[in-house]
Each structure stands twice: as structure tokens, then as C-alpha cells.
UniProtKB/TrEMBL annotation, chain B:
Example of a GO MF term: glutamine synthetase activity
Organism per entry: Paraoerskovia marina
Lineage: Bacteria, Bacillati, Actinomycetota, Actinomycetes, Micrococcales
Name under which the protein is recorded: Glutamine synthetase
GO biological process: glutamine biosynthetic process
Membrane-spanning residues: none
Cited InterPro entries: Gln_synt_N (IPR008147), Gln_synt_N_sf (IPR036651), Gln_synth/guanido_kin_cat_dom (IPR014746), Gln_synth_cat_dom (IPR008146), Gln_synth_gly_rich_site (IPR027303)
Amino acid sequence: MSLGSGSRSGGGRSTSVVGQLSRLGFGDATRAARLLADPALAPFVDGAPASFYEALGYAADPDLAVLQILRLAETVGGQDAATLRRLIHADDGESRRGQDRLIAVLGASVALGDEIISNPERIQILADLLPGIGVPEADVRAELLHAVGADPEADVPVASLGGDDGADAMRRAYRARLLRIGASDVTASDPLACLPAVAAALADLASAALEAALAVARADVEGHEAVRIAVLGMGKTGGRELNYVSDVDVIYVVEPADGFDEDRALTVGTHLATHLAHACAGTTSEPPLWPVDAALRPEGKQGPLVRTLASHVAYYERWAKTWEFQALLKARPVAGDRALGTAYRDAVEPFIWHAVTRENFVEDCQAMRRRVENNVPAAEAERQIKLGKGGLRDVEFTVQLLQLVHGRADVFIRSRQTLTALADLSAGGYVGREHARRLAECYSFLRAAEHRIQMSRMQRTHLMPTRVEDQRALARSLGMRSGGAEALMERWRATRREVRALHEEIYYRPLLPAMAELSDDEMRLAPEAVKARFAAIGYRDPAGAMRHVTALTDGLSRRASIQRQLLPVMLGWFATGADPDAGLLAFRTLSEELGATPWYLKLLRDSGTAAERLALLLANSRYAAEAFTRTPEAVRWLADDAELQPRGAERLSNETDAILRRAEDPDRAITLVRAVRRRELGRTAAGELLGVLDPVAAARAISDAADPAIAGALRVSEHLAKVERGYDPTHDGPARMLVVAMGRLGGQEMGYGSDADVLFVYEPTDGTDDPAAQKYATSVATSLQKFLSSMSPEPALPVDADLRPEGRNGPLARSLASYGEYYGRWSSSWESQALLRARIVAGDLDDLGRRFVDLIDPLRYPGGGVPASTVREIRRIKARVEAERLPRGVEPARHLKLGRGGVSDVEWTVQLLQLQHAHDVPAMQTTGTIEALRAATDAGLVERDDAEILADAWHLASRLRSAVVLLTGRTGGRNADLLPHDRQSLTGLARIIDLDGSGADLEELYLRTTRRARAVVERMFYGDED
Amino acid sequence: MDRQQEFVLRTVEERDIRFIRLWFTDVLGVLKSVAVAPAELESAFTEGIGFDGSSIQGYTRVVESDMIAKPDPTTFQILPWRGETHGTARMFCDILTPDGEHSLADTRNVLKRTLARASDMGFTFYTHPEVEFYLFESLRTDGPPVPVDQAGYFDHVARGNAHDFRRAAITMLESMGISVEFSHHEAGPGQNEIDLRYADALTTADNLMTFRSVVKEVALEQGVFASFMPKPLSDQPGSGMHSHLSLFEGDRNAFHEPGAQYELSKTARQFMAGLLHHAAEITAVTNQYVNSYKRLWGGQEAPSFVCWGHNNRSALARVPMYKPGKGVSSRIEFRAVDSAANPYLAYAVLLAAGLAGIENEYELPEPTEDVVWDLTASERKALGIKPLPQSLAEAIDIMESSELVAETLGEHVFDYFLKNKKQEWAEYRAQVTQFELKRFLPVL
């Protein structure tokens, strides 16, 4: 077959040429036929064998290859033209291999092709068949040093070409060799298998370039003899696994040469480093190679460019952070003084392998991991090969973490190269053979794809192409010829998924005890290594963790086998919580309780989120752990956000209604009513902890769960009291009842541990005398209190009526008339203040409730505000409360409720404003603290800044009160309202309130916020105007 | 066990050290010491030494009295005054909670934290203190102490106690690796000044703690008594600790800009603006005792007013004479600090004030050429020159509303410091002084 003359003949022939080209793999065969028929090409392709066209069709992008051949033909001349013609007409094995190289390069890389076209003599590099990979490092170094006229044998090679001429010579030599590497790469039979060799060749070339650039710098810098300088390759250069286009990361270390002082050495060293960077990346007539990035040096970009060895060591001893040691893992002398480079490497080595014992290793690692995962712009997330979950960084992180954890005790796994390290880890028994093989394959695939994408235009990109044509070319260049773009994208997505899964598998799976009946490949990690791994991710008691894991996975039951699937990843999730050990223990308890329930393990295994959420709850909150053991069905909610939303007052009230309607036994009915509240508390806790519910909504939900419980208990109590007195339970008894919510319940701002403050109001029904009604009402109130607070498996809601007139000395329930009389004659300022929070909640709301509100409104929202004497009185009471109510020995600043700038400081301030102004500002007539504060601010009564400070303190203190309960699971006790001292609890609280920081940060934040709030309180409440 | 720790262990063995004193500082800057035997040293490095923090000023609350002192091996030093053969050595400690976190009360860590902030901005903070102190014949508190000589500024006193004293003290300091820049007789009788060579602020603060011990120790050996009290003699100059401050970016002095006025860079001007802006807020820290204010308002060269000048010996901040082209030595001298300050806290607040100036790009006011003391009150007002606090009470009051100081010290130290100082003020105010008795008793 010869296509060359086709287009000159009739249309039919031409069509058949197009058809042939199309079959050979050209995308736009018509255009290809036209290009091939170009007269400029004729001298080269006339009479070319069919194998030439087949070779074109075999290129990654045949259309590109044909265009580049034509462009090359237009410029090439002399001996190079002869070579081109020989390659096109290849008739022996050697020239056929040259043809392969030419066409593969032109079809894979626009940039390399353009380079050949502008430097046609480089076609000889393709024709001479010398290999680009597997070349000794020393040869490459010598080649580039020769290019700048330096002697590779010299101890200190100095270029004879200085300045821009030297840089240009070095860059030309670099590009010639880069073409050689590219040619070997694109003609390799298995692009994945040759990846390590290609990456190593690229790193060697970069090292040689740095060496030549240094030789040029020496030629330019006067007195370079004063300094010994070594260039350490970092990152992929140091790991000898560079890609085509990348910043080259370095660190410089200098020492004075014999007879020179240190200051001089530092000055000259800095000059050399600056000149070196210029030779590689500065503007000269040849395009720059790549930026030389020294940002990994001590103090980063702020630090001096060069340091002495001692200065490096001093820095690493004192200041360095964990990630810097992780970076040092890759450090390798690549240019300059070898002895000095090696000395540096030896000096920093111990730091790397002790990093795991550093105080903050666990936190730092988690932070580094988050950086790996989160630093991806959203627009690129779906195209990133390097960053993001399942990207190259993820593989590298997995390998490096294992090296840091186990490399301390095992010197055989300290390789800088990712794939070698992975193989070493596998050989050492830290990673299963199969897992290691699969991870290596994923890594090679991602790297090979990255290489091809970068090579195409020699651009630093890590993004999958979006055009189908580009994807197709990429697929072909990776040897995936039949599947094309679709197969490539599918494999890429599958690889990312696999990397994710493999990280969990590789790190966590070996934490499970090995079982004899599992396949031979299943590796067995030594117990010491298991402990190191548990400890490195934050388990305080690795031995205990091992016991729990064994208990959960022991045996051959279906349960144990599902646990074996679940646990590796859950162990990782527990580790991100405040108390991994407690989380694992709670999970064991829950699983032992629920193991037999058919849906439990299945849900955890199959739901996308339930298992992760459960792990988070159990590891962060004892309250949630207990709630979930008490309410096992709660695990189901975790799979569904809608289930984590509060049920709302109305639905709960209907549910309570339904329970009471069908109930026969009062005790049983109350138990059910209380169970509803328990369930809702669990739901709210889960919602709040998982961030589905904000803290204000959570406080509201807790109050909403209390309301129906009180209403239900009132109904049962009334029912029993009527029956006891011979009344028809479906009609009025001796009195109608009303329960008024006070305090936090009234304000709908309850916490998990709040009591229910109430007032009981009654009104005798027609024909009942007051003593009988009073007796009835008292018995109803007493029974209500008993029902809600009695010992029971369901959580108690202590009902507290101490805010009633005359306090504990007064009657438990009063008639509306008696309230009226009392408030008319005796009422004190604190009672008016307490009534600001009064909200009718259960009983005869429509009539009695409305009349009660009418009775108290003039008291709590007095026209004209309150007299100065009352203001003084309230201030005095508050001052006394501060002095007396705080438990002994408690630091005022740390009491969340009564302490400096805490909840009660803010509430009293707001309440005083309400007493003074709510009559005139109706929006302030609310039981909610923050609502009232906002209304007061809108009315201009409070400065916006002050209001913000008060609201911040109130929110933070309230959240912390809830968080203490969630963390400890204790709803009362001496420490329930205290900011704890110990760091572990503080850290736990910080996580619960979702503070991006440590426990110490939380402590500072709380003390600072409340200190500021107190200053506002002293000004606004105590009238302490400066 | 890292190399430094191994080095310490080896030295302890080779030099036959019998005791190692673990040093740390309470919130007020008083040196505390726990002695451990060499056998305990290894565990001190790995686990630290537990102690009851509740008995240390400002360290902790009763509830968490267990604290851990963890020696910093880079500060290991043999103490020369305990005899050559069976020596004693010391190391400074970081104070940790039982969880291994830095204690909030550890003032050394307050400075470290502030230095880390500077480091995040690319700066290293260097200081160079000029420490003044008095030598008295003996410790007596029932009347004015008696100075060892009657000499004056730079006087050479032949065979004077002070001369021997300074020589002995300097020899001892140098043998402990603390370089001394300069030493001379100061203006007051028995008053001496020793300048430490500039070093990073943490090293300087450690050195100052050592320095005070050395001076006290040498004085004892020579049968005299040394005091760093800010104003021991009412009619003689007080003892200040003028501190020269500079920021470095790597090896480059960030305060230096060739060709600028006084060769002072923008960074330096903003830093100084920060010092002046916050000077009143930080005075309670740099001048922490009731007695400090008697020096601060004692006339003569005392820096009572917030202003700066080039070579103006009455200004609060001074830009010393510069040698053109000697970029490394560009610096700002802050003159309020006295010799009794806790150096960790004092340098932390000075640095924080300066950094605030840089971060918020404060404008530096015009320099003051005049001797500020000679101006009338109205003149000072017209020039916008404000006074520093006149008493500890006023200083506390101003500090209490300072976000800068709260943030720098951390809420715990801030709170403790204020409480302690309020207490000191209350006790001081309760005194009926000689002055009152002499003036009022006869006539009232």
C-alpha cells in the first residue's frame, strides 16, 4: 500500500485514502490526507512503505504526528533531511526503531515536537537510538558539566562558560537529554513498568543540571573557593522520582573552606545559590528549565537561603515542626560537595526517625492529612491526579506515615523512593504483599498518566484533560488502545477509589489480629508494631485497643466477619475523635448489645455515613455513647439527616396524646412519656454533635421535648386525682390547672442537664370552695413532680417550683386570685425579674393561661420602667449572688453559669434592660435572652459591639454547659458547670463545639470572651461608666 | 534520647557532677530550683520531674497542683561557684502539665510563644540588656542600706570592692558561657552596671536569671550584698535595665536601612511606634513593683514620658548612636524596664508591642530633641507626650483593659499577675510610712 500519490488522482481514490487513514486510527482522516499530500512532504514520503503510515496511525495522537512531520519537513535541511527521509523509509531494524522513536515523540508531545522542529539537528538524537533511561548518574552529570566546559573529574568543577552563555549551554544539554528520556519513555513496551526508571532518569538529569548550574555560578562568583556548598534535593528530586515538569526542591548547606571564616562562607554561599537558581530559571536566550525552590529550608522563605550544618541542626533541634521532618525524609545530596551533603544527611537522619515521638505528632499528622485532602480548589477536585483523596499525595502520605511510624525501630524501611519504600515495607511485613502490589500499581498508573499529561505540552499540570480527544490520546499513550477515553477515565476513577480504600486497609487492617484460616498472603504485624501504629494515631492504651478489637472480631460468626470488614476504617474514625479509646470501648459495648439485631451491622456496613457518624459520636461524647446504648434504634437515624432533625413541639405533643389515649396503667403511661423525651434528647445530642443542628436549635429541641413530658404528667396526675376524689376523669375536677414554665425552660434555652423550673396555678371550678381546690391542686402538683423525677430507667426531669411566691415556704400551688393578691401586695424585684421568663406550658392555656399572662405582664413589663431603688436592689442581689452562690474553692472565671462574664451575668444584664424598657419596646417582651438582647440593640438601648460581646459570651458559655454534659455524660454534680482544667477534657470540649483549635485555645477563648463580657456587664449592669 | 541529652549525661559523668539544679521562674521572675541527683537525670529528660505547683507563685490552682519540670538540655551549664571537683550544674526547665502540655503559668513559655509569633512573621528577636544593681555592705531593712563605696559614673575605684567584684562576677559569667559586653561603675554610690552581649531574647532571659544568681553569689563570697531593687536609695539613681532591641530577618538586621534617617528601617519605625503606643499598658510588667515607680518618677534620666529620640537620654525609647555601614548594630533602646522585672514576661510584652506596631502599621511620632523633664506640662501636652503610669495602681488599671497584654501573657498569667499586683498595692497602701509620721504626727 502506498498512499502518497492518492490525492493527486481521482476523487474515488482520495476517498479510499481517507477511509484507510480512518481505519489506521486518525481522528480527522480528511485533514490527515490533505496534510500528507502537501507538496513539502512529497520529497520525504514519496514511495514510503506502508509501515510508515501504520506507525503514524499507532502514535498516541496520529493527527498531531502527521502535522508535526509536515512542519518538520518544511524546516529540515542537509544531513538532518537525509535522516528524516531515512527514518520515514525505514527498511532495516535500526532505522525502524528510529522511526518508532520519531513518530511516538511527535504524536505524544507538542512541546518535544516543537523543539525538534526549531532545532532539527535533534532528530539525530532520535536516530542514534542511545537510551535515555537506565544511564548511570555519573554519565549524565559528566555530559552536562562538559556542556558548560567544566571538568567532571574535578573536586570542585568550575565552568569555563559563565553567565548567560553558561546557563544557555547547560539548558541546551538538558533539553537534548530530556528528549532522549522522552523518546525511551514513549517507546517503552510497558509505560507503567518503566515508570521508576523514567522518574529516576529525570531526577538524575535535574541533579546534573544543578551541578552544571553550580559550576556556572562558580565561574561567576568571585572567591567561590571560600565556601564548600552542597545542594540537597528534597521532595521528588530527593526521592529520585521526579516528573517531567516540576519545581525542583532544594536545601543549601555551606561550610567555610579551609582558611576562610564563616561570615565569608555564608555571603559567598548565598551568591552561589542565587546564581545557581538564575542559571536554571532566570531569563536568558534559552527558555528556563524549572524554578529552583528552596522553601523547605529552615524558617521557609523567611530564613536565610544558605546555612551552615550546625545552624541547620540547631534549627531542627529547637524550632522545626513535624512536617519538616517528614520533608527531610526525602533529603539527598544531589550536587556540590558530596562529603558535606552526606554529613548533612547523617546529621538530620536521627531527627526524622524520632519525629514520631514528638509531642504533637498525632495532631500534626492529622493536620497534614487534612492538608492533603482539602487543599484542592473545588473546580479541580474531579480532575486532580496529585492532590485530593485518592491522589498521588495520598499514596505518598500513606507510605511516609508508615515509614515514620515503623522506621524508628526498623532501618530497612527508610528508602526515599516511594515505590522502593513500599516494597521494603512489604518485605518487612508492615504491608501485605497483595496490598503493596495494588498500591504500587495505582501509584504507577497515576504517575504515568501525570507524566504523559505533562509531557504533552511540558507544562506543570496535574489535571486530567477535559477534551475527549486529549483523553483518547492519553489513553493510547498509556497503552490503553482499545478502550479509549472512556476506559481511561473509568480506570482513573477506579484507581482513586482503590487508593482511598487501600490507605484504610494498609494502615488499619493489620491492627486486627491475624487469623489462621485467612489466606496465606494476610500479613501478620508483630504486636509491638501494632502498638506503635495504634499509638501513632492517638490511642492512649494500645494494649486495651488490641483487646477490644480481638473481642469484636474473634470467631467465625457472620458478626465477626462483618466486624472484620468494618473495623479497620472505624478504627481510623475513632482516632479522629477526642477519645479514641472510649469510642472503641463504647462501640464494643454497643455491638455486644446489638450484635444479634439483624439490621445493626448491615446498616453500618451498607450505609454511606452511619458508621462514620457513629464512630465520631462514640469517640467524642459519653452522653451520646450512653444514649445510643439506651436507644439502640438511634443508630438508624445516623443514615438519614431528616431523622436527626428535632421532631418539633407539635409532633411530640401528638405522640404523647396518642400514648395517653391508649394507656391503661398510669405508671406505664408515664414511663412511655418519659421514654419519648429520652429518645428526643438522644436525637438532639446526635444532631448537635454531628453539626446537623446548631446549638440554638438544640436548646430549643430540648425544651420542646420537656414541654410534652410536663403536659403528659399533668394529665395523668389530674386523672388520678379526679378518680381518687370520685370525679369523672373526662370532666373538670375541683380545679382547673395551669403549669407555667420559668427559667431556661421558660426561655426555651434548656441544656441536657437542666431542671424544669415551673409555677403551679389553679382556679377552683364553679361550686368548689378554695381549700378543697387548693388541696386538689397541691396533690396534682406533687404527683406531677414525682412522676417526672422518680427513679426509673428513663432520665428524670426534676421539676422545681422554688421560684413560686414565698419560695419553699409558700404553698406549692396557688389560685390565680392568690397570685393576683400576692403580686399586688408583696411582689419583690427579683420576682418581677423571674417572671420575665414565664411561659405558659401545660393545662388550661386558653383561659387560665391567658389571664395569668395578663396578670403578670404589668409586673414584668412595668410602664415607665422600674424606679431607681429597684435597680439598686437588683444590683445588690446580683452582687450578693456572685459572692455567695459560687461553690467554695471554685475560680470565678471558670464557672460557666455564675462566673465572671458567664451565662448569668449576661442574663441579668438583659433582664434589667427588659424591666426598664420592655414596656416601651414590645419586641423585648420575650422569654428568650438573645431575642431580648437583639430587640434592645435594635431599639438603640445597647451598642452593637457590646451586644455582640454579650451574645458571644452567652452562646459560648451555654454551648460549653451542654458540651460538658455531652463529653462526660454527667448531667449534674459539682463540676457540671465548670470549665475543666485538664487538657484532655478541654480538647474534647473543643471538638464538640467544633472549635478549630486545641483545648488550650478553647480555654484562652473562653477566658478572653468572658473577661470582655464582664467588662460590658460592669458598665451596663452595674452602671460603672468611666 | 537526643544528642544534646546524651552530651549532658556524659558531661555529668565525666565532670563528676553530684547535683543538677533544675531552674525555673515563677510568674514574678523569682528563680526556683529543684536539685536532682545524676541518677535521676535520665528520667528527668524523658518524663520530667514532678513537683507541687500550688506552692509556687502563680503557677497553678490547687486542683491541679501536679506539675512537671522538664529540663532543656541546651541550657546545661556547670555552676562555677560550687567548687571545682564535685560540681553542681544547672538547666532551665519548661513547665508542663501532667498531660505533657506547656503549663499556662510557665512564663518561659509565654516568651517562647511570642517568639514563635515573631518567627511566623519571619523575625528573630534579639535583646541586649544593661543591668544596673547596687552593692551594699550588708542586707539590712531597718534603715537605708549602706553602699560599699562613694564613687560615681565610670569612676575607677582603686582596690575598690566594686572593681574586684565586677572582675569576679564577669569571670564567673564568662565561664558559664555568658558574654559580657561592658561593665563600669554607675552614677550612684555602690551602683554598678554590667551589659550582656546581645543574643536572642530567650537566651538573654535565661542569661539574666543566671546573671542575677551569679551576682548575688559573688557578692556573698566577697562579704557584700547585691540588690536589683529598682530604687533602694531615695536620693540616688534607681537600677534600670535598659534593653536594646532588634529584629533580624535571617542574618539581616531588619531595623537597618542604609540611607534612611538614623539608618532606621520602616520595620524599626513601626516597631518603635508599637512600643510607644502600648508603653503604658505594658508598664505593669516591665516595672512590676510598687518600688519600680519611685525609679520611674525619680527624675534625672528616668524615662517617665512616652517619647523617643536619637541619643536623647531623657526619652523612653532611644535610637543609639550608629556607626554608618554597621548595619548589624541598628537597634532601639527601651529604657523603662527595671532590673527586677521578670525578663521572660518583659521581653514578651515588648516584642508583642513592637509586633503590633508592625502588623497595624503604626505611624511613628516625631522624635523629641529636648530633655523632656525640662519641658512644662503644657509644652508636653502640646507635643502629644504622655506620661507613663505614676504608680503601680495606675499601671495595673491600664493593663487590666489591655487586649495586647492579655493575649501575650495568656489569660491565666494575665489574671494571676493582676491579682498578685492588686494585692501588693493593697498591702503597700496599708502602710503608715516614716514620711507620714515625720510630716504629720507633729502637726496633726
